[in-house]
């Protein structure tokens, strides 16, 4: 009998404990559980205008230029163009794009009497693809490291002409020794690691600041698009620090 009373007491105590726990369970709500909202991956489909400053070494190029026209090119060289890119979530936060930029810079000397006018033209073109990874610590604000790479060319021309002479069409064959042009050109490959800081101030517009370094790999230099040109200083290239600003329109979720 004593054992039976003891067993009943244990059962009553357990039942009362379960009832108390059920009362607390009824007071519990899933709304009370803190939840962390999942942040969607970076999304962008955009295109826009970019302006790039290239701080390249112009010392040897200016040695030649100064001997021709008595003036020098100044660094940085400013290249204008555009870029389009997309990050659509196939690989989260990764975006790919295409860029095309270029610059044409001219210097000339004035003709004086029998001295013909001389002009130099220095141009750089760069076309390539970009791969970036976006990190968005704040809404609308992104820090995006990446790399650009592709192909391009450096072109340099020297021309002279007499302002008092006229030339019949067609221009070839050349009938005047006072009018002439020489050209040297090299195709190149380039790689440009860089860091973008971007702010999407609306869902359809974004501004960019960018810094990087361009590595150019020059191919053989050609004289007048024909024979190989030897002895060109290795410093005549498109390597150097870069800075860029851009304005883009499109769709952004950050």
* CATH arch. level architecture: Beta Barrel
Regarding CATH, which class?
Mainly Beta
Radius of gyration: 34 Å
Q: Tell me the distance between the termini.
A: 75 Å
Domains (count): 1
What is the multimeric organization of the chains shown?
single chain
Helix count from the secondary structure assignment: 2
Strand share of the residues? over 45%
Could you say which overall geometry the principal axes of the C-alpha atoms support? elongated
Number of DSSP strands?
A: 10
Give a quick account of the main beta sheet: strands, pairing sense, barrel closure: 8 strands, antiparallel, barrel
Widest sheet: strand ordering: 1-2-3-4-6-7-8-10
Poorly predicted parts: none
Helical proportion, percent range:
10-25%
CATH topology type? Porin
**Element-level helix/strand string:** HEHEEEEEEEEE
Mean pLDDT: 85
Structural class: mainly beta
């Amino acid at each position: 009998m004593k054992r039976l009373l003891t067993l009943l007491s244990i059962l009553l105590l357990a039942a009362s404990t379960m009832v108390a726990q059920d009362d607390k369970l009824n007071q519990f709500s899933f709304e009370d559980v803190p939840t962390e909202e999942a942040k969607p991956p970076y999304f962008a489909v955009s295109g826009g205008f970019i302006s790039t400053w290239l701080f390249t070494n112009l010392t040897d190029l200016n040695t030649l230029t100064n001997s021709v026209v008595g003036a020098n090119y100044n660094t940085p060289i400013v290249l204008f163009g555009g870029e389009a890119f997309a990050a659509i979530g196939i690989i989260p936060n990764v975006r790919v794009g295409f860029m095309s930029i270029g610059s044409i810079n001219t210097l000339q000397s004035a003709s004086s009497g029998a001295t013909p006018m001389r002009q130099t033209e220095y141009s750089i073109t760069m076309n390539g693809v970009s791969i970036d990874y976006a990190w968005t610590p704040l809404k609308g604000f992104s820090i995006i490291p990446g790399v650009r790479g592709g192909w391009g060319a450096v072109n340099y021309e020297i021309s002279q002409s007499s302002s008092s002479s006229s030339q019949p069409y067609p221009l070839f064959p050349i009938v005047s020794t006072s009018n002439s042009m020489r050209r040297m050109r090299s195709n190149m490959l380039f790689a440009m690691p860089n860091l973008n800081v971007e702010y999407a101030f609306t869902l359809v517009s974004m501004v960019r600041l960018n810094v990087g370094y361009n590595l150019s790999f020059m191919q053989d230099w050609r004289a007048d698009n024909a024979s190989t040109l030897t002895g060109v200083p290795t410093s005549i290239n498109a390597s150097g620090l870069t800075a860029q600003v851009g304005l883009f329109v499109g769709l952004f979720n950050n």
